[in-house]
Specification:
By secondary structure, the chain is an alpha+beta fold. It contains 5 helices and 8 strands; from the N terminus they run ββααβββαβαββα. β5 (88-95), α3 (105-120) and β6 (124-130) form a beta-alpha-beta unit. Bound molecules: coenzyme A.
């Protein structure tokens, strides 16, 4: 698939996030990030496979994107995966460690969702979040995500409990949107 070259600027709360394709310069910045426990397994270099993906130039602007502020400082990353078939965009994300826990989560996530909506025109999102991560879950629930599945995943060298969350909150809405898209694709 052709790499997408996208950039978008918006003001959210008191930070203007610009989301652009990840670039080589971003990788050393992101691999220097370290979250305090228990969030340390989210460190970009904590999982070998995740780090390999992040460092793969063919992924930059395809599914890996960087968020910067008005001063062009890197403030976070997003991964947008488009599993087929369907309408769902799977979101992975991380705010820079020193920006976590100060109330930016909602605006940051909203910036990512708006970016994805506008560029891929899909109606639904899903994400996988560690079950212990009440801080993140609170942000996602406030935005209208709901927990739909509990599962275990091997990451950072161990099995962990995760929750799959979906947006929109109503499964009926999501089902109707998927059926409508399937019908139009069959025509
Ligand atoms: C997930 C993330 C976007 C959340 O954003 P954030 O800006 O850190 O979250 P906020 O500061 O807005 O906090 C959200 C809420 O959780 C609450 N909270 C914080 N720590 C908490 C805890 N241990 N348990 C329960 N709630 C907690 C906050 O008080 C806040 O609620 P309030 O608005 O009622 O006060 C951000 O922390 C991040 O990117 N972290 C990187 C690692 C990570 O967790 N990734 C998740 C990938 S799925």
């Amino acid at each position: 698939m052709t790499a997408l070259v996208l950039a978008q600027e918006r003001e959210y709360a008191f930070v203007t996030y610009r989301i652009r394709p990840m670039s080589a310069d971003d990788i050393p910045v992101m691999t220097s990030w370290h979250y305090p426990p228990p969030y340390d397994f989210y460190d970009p270099d904590a999982d070998e496979d995740d780090l390999a993906e992040l460092s793969d130039p063919s992924r930059w602007g395809h599914d890996y994107f960087t968020a910067v502020n008005e001063q062009h400082e890197v403030v976070g990353f997003f991964q947008f995966r488009l599993p087929e078939p369907g309408l769902v965009i799977e979101i992975g994300l991380g705010l820079r460690p020193d920006l976590t826990g100060i109330g930016l989560g909602r605006s940051y996530m909203t910036a990512g969702m708006d970016f994805a909506r506008e560029h891929w025109c899909r109606e639904a999102f899903q994400l996988f979040v560690a079950a212990f991560n009440r801080r993140a879950i609170k942000v996602y629930e406030r935005l209208g995500f709901r927990s739909v599945e509990e599962l275990r995943r091997f990451t950072g060298g161990e099995w962990r409990d995760f929750v799959r969350m979906e947006y929109p909150r109503s499964a009926e809405t999501l089902g109707a949107a998927i059926s409508a898209r399937s019908r139009s694709e069959r025509r």
